[in-house]
Amino acid sequence: MSITLTSYGPKTKAKSLGLGVFDGIHKGHQAILSQCDSLLTFNPHPVTILNKAITLERLTTIEEMTHYIPKLFVLEFNQSIATLSAHDFLNKIILEKINPDTIVIGYDYHFGKNKEGTPEIFKQWCNNHNIPISIVEPISNNTQIIKSKAIRTQLKEGNINQALDDLGHPYLMIGTVVKGDNRGKELGFPTANLMFPTEKLIPQHGVYKASITIENKHYKTMLYIGKRPTFNATTPTVEAFILDFKGNLYDQSICLYIEHYLRPEKKFPNKESLIKQIHQDIHDAYGH
Questions:
Q1: Residues 106, 57 share a domain
Q2: How many domains does the chain fold into?
């Protein structure tokens, strides 16, 4: 059987290993991460292999995950891995490939064929191998346990600021700057048009307060996601107006952090009305 395990970060032994998919690195994941120096995740997302009819947009790509986690193990999830028994998964991957000193899992962590492995089975296995294990209880917001699935729904069609609160950090999107139609420049707000991996979840259309990191420097940013209805365009676009920045970013990879949802997209009667609203958006976001 082929096991493809890729590691990112320091080439040191995993002292404390957390296990899970960790899509979003939300507050529940952070409760696990706070006890770990390394994580094991899976790529592609297991649900897309177990059910071919499902396509899933990722909150966090593997590249983005490395921004949150000092040492990351990525196990290629395929049919061979999916059919491993729970004990084979523990013995052939956790013990033989990683061999951590301690283990941290969530209350709902299941593993092995047909999810036969439970936290209790994992705990028994750890006891047999003299490996300390910590099982982390769920983290909730005011109404429910925080889950990646709910955050995806909120970002696409619900309360975006609730999703950002559940994440516990700005929503990171690593994208590449591509050429646009220069319409922002004509309006006096030159924008960077951004392209993202096909599996990356793009939040619902609207205007956002954001920031962008360029060469380790943070810049205040206004972000627009939408179809530019004022100009009768039909293709969705992601455009960032980076305050106090001048320079050519074409073909560069940049880190965009969505901090707050301001308003939905809107069709304006003319360019002047749009320009006035952009000034208002900047004021609402930054007070100037």
A1: yes
A2: 2
State pLDDT tens for residues 43-85.
Answer: 999 988 888 778 899 999 999 999 999 899 999 999 999 999 9
**Overall pTM surpassing 0.90 (yes/no):** yes
- Give the type of residue at 35: Q
Neighbours of 179 (CB within 10 A): 8
User: What confidence tens digit (pLDDT) does each residue in 226-273 have?
Assistant: 998 888 777 899 999 999 998 899 999 999 999 999 999 999 999 899
CATH of the domain at 42: 3.40.50.620
DSSP 226-275: E--GGGT--S-EEEEEETT--S--TT-EEEEEEEEEEE-----SSHHHHH
Q: Which domain holds residue 179?
A: 170-286
Q: Are 33 and 89 found together in one domain? A: yes
Place of tokens 């939408």: 226
